[in-house]
Amino acid sequence: MLRWLMLAAFALGTFATPVFAQPGPTAASKPLAGAELKEYIRANYTKYEYQIPMRDGVKLFTAVYVPKDDAQTYPMMLTRTPYSVAPYGADKYPDALRPSAQFVKSGYIFVYQDVRGRWMSEGEFVNVRPHNPAKKGKEIDESSDTYDTVEWLTKNVKGHNGKVGITGISYPGFYTVCGMIDAHPAVKAVSPQAPVSEWFIGDDFHHNGCLFLPHCFNFMYGFGKNRPEPTKKGARDRFEHDTPDGYKFFLEMGPIKNADAKYYKGEIAFWKEVMEHGTYDDFWKARNIRQHVKNIKPAVLTVGGWFDAENLFGALEIYKHAEANTPPQFNHLVMGPWVHGGWSRGEGDHLGDVSFNAKTSDFYRETIEFPFFEYHLKGVGESKHPKAWVFETGTNVWRKHDTWPPKTAKATSFYPHPGGVLWGNAHLGKDAVDSATPPPAFDEFVSDPAKPVPFINKTDIGMVKEYMTADQRFASARPDVLVYQGEVLKSDLTIAGPIEVELYVSTTGTDADWVVKVIDVYPDDLADPDPNPTGVKMGGYQQLIRGEPFRGKFRNSFSKPEPFKPGEVAKVKFTMPDVFHTLRPGHRLMVQVQSTWFPLVDRNPQTFCDIYKADASDFKKQTHKVYRDAEHPSRITVGVIK
Description:
The chain is an alpha+beta fold and 642 residues long. It has helices at 34-44, 101-106, 142-156, 171-180, 213-223, 246-253, 258-264, 269-276, 282-285, 312-324, 360-378, 473-476; strands spanning 17-19, 45-53, 59-67, 74-81, 109-114, 160-169, 187-193, 206-207, 210-211, 299-305, 331-336, 350-351, 354-355, 388-392, 397-401, 410-417, 421-424, 442-447, 482-485, 493-507, 513-521, 542-551, 570-583, 588-594, 622-629, 632-633, 635-641.
């Protein structure tokens, strides 16, 4: 979740439809940008600022940009944000209006609101404020604040056509989700983009109970500071690490409890709340907005990025819950090869060393997002959106599906074998389970919390966005990483949907994290890019397709952690977020298993305890085993499209 973000009537066939043409904008239709866009906004829009009263009397600061041309009426586009609606002042205009320049030229009433308790709005701010489905009287939540805002806007802003859209990326995506729950009748179309949905299971700060350390620590230092009263100058400080090396900084910080003792000094309230709630208790359960996504009335366009390091989980989960619980007539998913918010800016043609050979962000803004809102808010064009617009990496092509995951995806398992071999039960035509070796058959490694496996082979202080596609050769050379590699593929292997992980493991300790990485290994003779400014060698490149950690003590319940019994085999089962990737002929499928992923994931002491209160003496070197025999068939299972 990045602090700078603010922000079907179509008949489908039974097969996926590829979309090959991805033209860029023509000279005549090229959107305004830069100084030209800013000048256009000032010349064609009038800005108003309001303090809009909520049902409990609290007033929320709202900036409204209305087209000067009053010969027609316009829909309203609302974004609610905790990141400020600056610039403040009726005579001060922004450089752009979201979602994109196409909307500015077409004509919309743009509305931006500081959410309750942030920046210039009154009231108390609560992080991912719990939804209250049984509100009475003056009781509020983010859904009611959205409803009350729309009610006021439709009664007090002139020149609108009675229709409202809501959009937002990341944290504003969370507020978009809230706005589509028990939505105001005027809200006709919403687009939650990379929405925050769950901060313990899969979004932002925790994945399967593991703390994403640099992301949470760095973000909360500025965002989490107290704001005692409305202000135009909020605390947006950046933490000074005094080193560019995040691995060094967080390792030297020691146990996680030292973060507050050494640096925060009790000033970041939400950090203290995170440290007090180390299990999936009522605090986190109340902040699971997914459970309330049902009976949605507006048209929905949920957007996410396959390589979004922050809210990939949220985009997929919000779509799935809307689809499962009395879905709206129009419920669409868009997944492209993007980092967090990458669809809203730039070209989206590459990430790190990996090229997608297409301007995917331009395509999305022009072909998907803009027509969606034009149709539902203005009645312009036709509803030609499929259920799912999804970009298939590897082949690098947009595809349309009438379901997600695709109905044609067949569950296929891949199993580790002796010598680092990976066999599949279908595609590779081998006997999957190692029945020739009597149990217990296993591979083992020593995991040392004092020397954790880095999550990326570069120096940085934060959660480097490129890690989602980064080369894993540096990790496969380490003795504390198990590596299993399949045969050279003779035809395309397309995997689509979630990845199911089932590991049979043991440890000499009483707790352990289990990190699984699914990797596309390129042919050794693959040519380097030309030009090649970074000097990368693509021959043998091990591209991460998906990686995910799981905290072992939560293997049976996120609410009631359990220790491992030293030396006793236990099953660890979890789901990794969806992928849509094709491994081309000549490539190989690889799976890596490890127990540290630092500093992306905080260190597990490998002794059963409350990790947020652990002492340095609790951190122990342990030996972990992954079993691979008929009685203990460790495996990953993916959907394969043939």
